[in-house]
Amino acid sequence: MIKEKEGNYIYCIIGTKQERNFGSIGIGGRGDEVLTVGYNDLSMVVSSHPITKLVVGRENLLAHEKVIEEVMKEFDSVLPVRFGTIASNADEIRNLLDRRYREFRNLIRDMDHKVELGVKGIWKNMDIIFKEITEENRKIREAKEKIQKDAGKKNIHAKMEAGKMVEAALQKKKEKEAEIIVDALRRTAFEHKLNKTMGDEMFVNAAFLVDKGREKEFDNIMDDLSDKHKDRIRFMYAGPLPVFNFANIVIYPEEWEK
After folding, report:
1. How many Å apart are CA 45 and CA 37, to the nearest integer?
2. Cα distance between residue 67 and residue 12, in whole Å
3. Is the N or C terminus of the chain more exposed, i.e. has fewer CB atoms within 10 Å?
4. How far, CA to CA in Å, does 206 sit from each of 80, 155, 189, 220?
5. Residue 179 has pLDDT above 80, yes or no
6. What is the 3-state secondary structure (H, E, C) of the chain?
7. Dihedral through CA 175, CA 177, CA 178, CA 182, nearest 10?
8. Would you state the pLDDT for residue 1?
9. pTM, rounded to two decimals
């Protein structure tokens, strides 16, 4: 059996010239040590891994994130590298750090002492939401009344049109209510990003870049929002997280070949 060639799996970039060992927590479940490979005052956090495409599965994604979170315990500025990035050897890593040195140093400065906080808002009762949509939209009310009036007839087209109107109104309602939540939170953040929502119930899926010194302030606003909307909205609040939404470094395969 031919043994696969070993490379360096990359998790993140940190601003240090000191060699570090974060323990035997490498991706792949082999107990590989997570170490640093440095150039000047920048280092990539890596572990040994076969040079092969990784399966994008929950276990591997969690292992990738777990390493970054471990590094975050010791460093105030951590730049995540996109999942699945593997270099052939340490020299490739040092050459890349040299070529993109200024870019990475500037990003480390921008992300210094900052964390990502994630907020999802989910409506608890969709029957109430759809009732509100009908009450707020005259055309939808009229369309539904006509469908009820013509009960028994083959009114497939009318039902499809009513469905489209409800879908559009639901999207507008999502955007309107998301704006209320985001407005309350973004004053404590440097940046925020709206991500795609899933299903009818989720109306906001946002990431916020927050200074560690204001994390408690953000927590308090979340508590106030949860209390204020407790009968209507269930919030999912996660953090502190790696800053994936604001500095997820991408290294393309052809860059290693330069």
Report:
1. 7
2. 9
3. N
4. 18, 40, 12, 17
5. yes
6. CCCCCEEEEEEEEECCCCCCECCCCCCCCCCCCCEEEEECCEEEEEEEEECCCCCCCHHHHHHHHHHHHHHHCCCCCEEEECCCCEECCHHHHHHHHHHCHHHHHHHHHHCCCEEEEEEEEEECCHHHHHHHHHHHCHHHHHHHHHHHHCCCCCCHHHHHHHHHHHHHHHHHHHHHHHHHHHHHHHCCCCEEEECCCCCCCEEEEEEEEEEHHHHHHHHHHHHHHHHHCCCCEEEEEEEEECCCCCCCECCCHHHHCC
7. 130
8. 47
9. 0.83
Cβ-contact 222, 235 below 8 angstroms? yes
Listed range (75-84, 101-110, 141-150, 247-256) with the worst mean pLDDT:
141-150
Backbone angles phi, psi at 68, to 5 degrees: -60, -40
Q: At residue 148, does pLDDT exceed 80?
A: no
Q: How far apart are the first and last CA of the chain?
A: 32
pLDDT of residue 55: 80
Each residue's pLDDT tens digit, 90-138: 999 999 999 999 999 999 999 999 999 999 999 999 988 888 887 777 7
* Angle (nearest 5°) at CA 68 between 66 and 73: 95
Contact assessment for residue 48 and residue 26, using Cβ atoms and an 8 Å cutoff: yes
- The Cα–Cα gap between 192 and 182 comes to 8
Beta-bridge partner residues of 79: 13
